[in-house]
Specification:
single chain, alpha/beta, Rossmann fold, 2 domains, 6-stranded mixed beta sheet, 3-stranded antiparallel beta sheet, 12 helices, about 40% helix
Amino acid sequence: MTYHSAWAFWLILPLVLVVAWVLWNRKKKLPTLQFGSVEVLKSIKPSLRSRMMELPTLLKALALIFAIWALARPQEANTKIKKNVEGIDIVICLDVSDSMLIEDMKPLNRLEAAKETINQFIEGRSSDRIGLVVFAGESFTLVPPTLDYQLIQQRVAEIASASSAKIKDGTALGVAMANAAGRLKDSQAKSRVMIFMTDGENNSGTIDPETGLDIAKGYGIKVYSIGIGKDGPTRIPVYSRDIFGQKIKTYQPFESTVNDDLLSRMAAETGGKYYRATTEGALKKVFNDIDSLEKTKIDVNKFTNYTEKYPPYLVTAIILYLAALLLGRSWLRRVP
């Protein structure tokens, strides 16, 4: 219950003062008689009529209180909220080549850092369809764009490197970009975004990166490209088994190189942005930046319908006032 004119309740205060003043003055003006002894009068009980002589005044005061309540206009608000959500379709394209196992990022390596950051990014979205594509020497769609975030996170947890997943190793940037673009080409969303994550340069695949970029541009897809890890000599873990079947990890030298020029062009020519993430903290900042740039548009229209509730109070005030007049001019009429 709400009140359109709640200020009206302040009128009750002067009303109470006026009623108190009337009753006080009426008591002072009552005629008196002098008796030598009032013992006999004490035994006489007052009649019902004499006890109720002030009832008309009290009924009028109560009528005015209800009238003030009606003046305050009690209302019942019925609010309806209509939300128009304009979501974004996003495909995350993740490099799973064996070089992503290089241990220069926490919690373990580049791949695990990327998986952890992707999960955090997904948790921050609400109305966007998100898909997941992985690639090494070839490309696969793990999850087409969907709102089932739990499914996406389950598949992210299952992502393994090329050697562990027994797929062709390498870095097929063009094939991956074309695959991800294919998942977005039929999207009805006004904003279509590809987040492209890699730590290498193109060395595999049947589609060259230029063709993949042209496909993305043709479908109006915005590309946020991320170069992961530091350039230069490093070590890549290699897993094998000894004669007892125990898994052994050794390291071999590796030259890590990210094609900054290509990744920068992918972003620049599609209206996106290129980032270089050499630490796990930098990678999280990149996704926070993308999260702030690609916001879901939500239009909220609020409609409130008010139902007036004052008529019962006004009717009660009228009935009480008429009852006061009737009693005051009949049974409870004062006579000189």
